[in-house]
Input
Amino acid sequence: MDKQKLQEELKQSMMARDELRTSVLRLLLSAINYYEIQKGGAGYSASEEDVLAVIQKEAKQRRDSIEEYKKAGRQELVDKETNELNILQVFLP
Output
């Protein structure tokens, strides 16, 4: 999975008016851009391994949030995070 493919997925989800998928992909691309800036500045381009690491990090954050929301009894937030996690898992090997 590379950044270009994610940008194409974002375009398709925007055309399909899939708000949740669009939101998750925007967040993911933003996290990848942030990673690129942290790693090597404006000229650095994330490799496929870098992109995969960012996706795994975002998925782990969702899993942790799901556990915390379950403890707090916030089912609506558990559902939201679960849906986001399901979208992220599509991009994991």
The longest helix spans residues 48-72.
